[in-house]
Input
Amino acid sequence: LLFQLLFLFGVIAQPIMCFTVYVMRHGQTDANANEIEQGSADFSRLTDLGKEQASNAYQALVDTRVTSIYTSPLSRARQTLEQLRQADASSTQTVLPPSDL
Output
């Protein structure tokens, strides 16, 4: 409301665009379940619990407007993303390719 008032009274030239960022970790992997550190290694897969966690994350965000998803190239992150997408086959979300950050 403050930004709208400042805009209306000419204090700022343009309305300020705000957005929300959600950060989500991948679901449980077989390495997590066995207390093995993975780091950036790409050898583990999601467990059934990890798949369930991803589905639960989708349910928590079901009424949230998501315009972009950024994901790691690691298999566990991609698998989590696929579980999210399977939970909503009609999704129109944009999945951006991983980048070397």
Observations:
- The radius of gyration is 18 Å.
- Helices lie at 2-8, 30-33, 48-61, 75-87.
